[in-house]
Amino acid sequence: MANLKVTLIHSVIGRPQTQRDVVKGLGLGRINSSVVVPDNAAMRGAIRKINHLVDVELAD
Prior knowledge:
alpha+beta
């Protein structure tokens, strides 16, 4: 199964608490922080909620 590299590119300041919780749940803290997550339905759903805040690319 493939992995996705998720990078936080926008601040969560002024965003709803649910979006802040998703960012924290993915393990992202500061701007430009990255995390590699498995490519499954749960992760894609979480990324979809904050797709305007992150950059997603395919990781090996």
